[in-house]
Design goal:
It is a single chain. The chain folds into two domains: 13-133, no CATH class; 141-403, Rossmann fold (3-Layer(aba) Sandwich), CATH 3.40.50. The chain has helices spanning 13-20, 24-40, 55-70, 93-99, 109-118, 151-163, 181-186, 206-214, 248-257, 268-274, 315-319, 329-334, 344-359, 366-376, 394-399, and strands at 45-51, 79-85, 172-175, 218-221, 237-238, 260-263, 278-284, 297-301, 303-306, 311-312, 337-340, 391-392. The protein is globular and about 65 Å long. It is α/β, with parallel strands linked by helices. It has 15 helices and twelve strands. Helix content is 36%, strand content 13%.
């Protein structure tokens, strides 16, 4: 739960009155367990591991950690992790339920975490995911999903699919186009402007969705809360984000069953990755955080326009400088950089490539392979990139080869 208490400053009388006193009974109950953790530390290291209320981190952080631990990347043989929902009212309930089938999830762990953080020396007992869901070793590529749905859940999921009008066995594609509606509703008191560089315009996806429908797919526009409905009505398009079927269960079920998942690098696509589905990333930003490890990932990033110089930044200028890791809208503004969305044609080209690759009818060529090599050659192994299996959209690279510069 951390040490931030909304607008109250720690040690201020309001902090005591409104943040401490209501939690005092829980603190006193948790105190013996926290003290026991400290006593046992030389023999058994008990750590508190939060399940994030942000579904991407709630799914991916644990998935990657468990695989890294299984493959010997964590020297924590004597560690016992206690997993707990960081904010139970905000966490996806189905995700927490499914994690509880394979790891020890303790609902009241948040009180242990709060009591632990309030006592001196609590840092070693609270696990922090420094890389989040970044699978820098590529372990997720060959691993099975960490859990599965029960027969009863499968039946329920199929019933909802039929109620949505999707025939049994008919392939569907999930589409997630990020905007600021969800975070503004989830945490309205926070200033989420810094995230706006990641937002996209759903209008730019119409051409690609039409093509998928023409190729026989249903398309589900995903999201918990969105600013704008899908701009056109199509017979096989379901605006799930604005439908009565949207709930925590289906937010997990649909990505697990889709033919592939279209995203811009937002939380729900990590659920698709959790079930080892194919992914197509459009408008990915920042380039320094590309999912380079993902064999099933096909990507096109946003381009960055230098306003004063009236030109696009070279990929080398982005990847090998701090610009490649900008995660705040104001940083782009301060440098005079405009984040340019992929055009409808670029989105269409990527989706067609992904669909044809999955069908086995996509044909690559030497030029594309050389451009892929040049692009990924701009990256150096670091804390977020260790293996390079993903691909950049073939047409996008060919049309923007000038941004590759010389290698």
């Amino acid at each position: 739960m951390g040490k931030k208490y909304n607008k109250y400053e720690k040690k201020d009388w309001k902090w005591v009155l409104f943040a401490v006193l209501p939690k005092l009974p829980a603190f006193l109950l948790a105190l013996p367990a926290v003290l026991l953790m400290r006593i046992l530390r030389p023999f058994i290291w008990v750590r508190l591991f939060p399940i994030s209320e942000r579904i991407g981190h709630g799914a991916g952080n644990i998935d990657v950690y468990l695989l890294e631990r299984k493959n010997g990347k964590h020297d924590d043989a004597k560690v016992i992790n206690i997993y707990y929902p960081n904010h139970p009212g905000r966490c996806n309930k189905q995700l927490v339920k499914m994690w509880a089938r394979v790891i020890p999830v303790f609902g009241l762990g948040r009180w242990l975490a709060w009591a632990n953080d309030e006592l001196p020396g609590g840092e070693p007992f609270h696990y922090h995911c420094t890389r989040g869901a970044a699978d820098i070793y590529g372990f997720t590529n060959d691993a099975p999903p960490p859990f599965s749905f029960t027969p009863q859940e499968e039946n329920h999921g199929q019933e909802v699919l039929r109620a949505m009008g999707i025939p049994v066995g008919k392939p569907f594609v999930c589409l997630l186009a990020r905007d600021n509606a969800f975070l503004n509703k989830l945490l309205p008191a926070e200033d989420w402007y810094y995230h706006n560089y990641r937002d996209v315009n759903i209008d730019n996806y119409v051409m690609a969705v039409r093509e998928l429908v023409n190729r026989g797919y249903y398309v589900l526009r995903m999201g918990a809360v969105v600013n704008k409905r899908f701009p056109v009505a199509l017979p096989s398009l379901i605006d799930y984000a604005n439908s009565p079927w949207r709930d925590d269960f289906m937010d997990m079920y649909l990505p697990s069953k889709c033919h592939f998942f279209i995203s811009c690098g937002a939380g729900l696509d990590v659920v698709a990755s959790l079930f080892r589905k194919e992914l197509a990333f459009v408008n990915y930003i920042p380039c320094g955080y590309l999912v380079s490890w993902m064999k099933k990932g096909l990507i096109i990033p946003k381009k960055l326009w230098l306003k004063k110089e009236k030109r696009f930044m070279k990929f080398r200028e982005i990847i090998q400088t701090d610009v490649g890791t900008f995660i705040n809208t104001r940083l782009y503004e301060e440098r005079g950089i405009e984040c340019v969305e992929n055009s409808p044609e670029e989105v269409l080209d990527l989706i067609v490539e992904k669909e044809e690759r999955m069908k086995g009818c996509w044909r690559t060529n030497e030029e594309d392979e050389e451009l892929q090599k040049r692009f990924w050659g701009l990256y150096k192994p670091d804390v977020r990139h260790n293996v390079f299996h993903a691909r950049i959209g073939a047409k996008f690279l060919m049309q923007n080869r000038d941004l590759l510069g010389s290698i």
